[in-house]
Each structure stands twice: as C-alpha cells, then as structure tokens.
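Backbones bend. We report:
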Amino acid sequence: MEDCIFCKIINGEFNTEFVLENEFAVVFKDINPKADTHLLVVPRKHVESLNELDDEILLGKLMITVKEATKKVGLKSYRTVINTGKEAGQEVFHLHIHILAGNIKL
C-alpha cells in the first residue's frame, strides 16, 4: 500500500528501530504507548485487518513473533490486542498486534 504508514516503516522510510524482525513481520515500539512496554507486531505483507487475513501460516507466524519479541525484551506477562475495524479502535489499517505490559492505560 502506497500511503500506509506501516508499509513505509517496513520499507525503511522512517529509520524506525526494530526490536525484532523476521521474514514475516517486524516489531517496533508504539510511538503513542499505552503501557510501560507497548510494542507492535506488524506483518510485512499488507493486510488491512484480521478480517482480511486468510493465511493461517502467517497468523501462526505472527503469534510466534509475539512470543519471540516478548522473550527478547524480557516480558513474562503481557497482554495482546488486535483492534479490527474503526469501531473497535483500529487507527492504522494494516493488521498489527499490540503487546502491552506493565502499567497499562487503555
């Protein structure tokens, strides 16, 4: 997607520091954190939301990436959130998984 902010981040247009990256996804800190630790797991493939994701392998790889990222930053307890659709609070229409830990301010 040409004007998708997450696609631009994935393509290196903003010098975003990745906490973790693999062939399926990138993980970086949310610029508007809602918790002491607030990471985003974003698939490299543009998928608008969970409703459009039909790839079971990608979904599994995203969840494994969550696990790898939390291990890398030393989290043992955390919350995962996937907002799907505007009414549910999705602001960027590129599927992403929020990882929240510590003092969560939702």
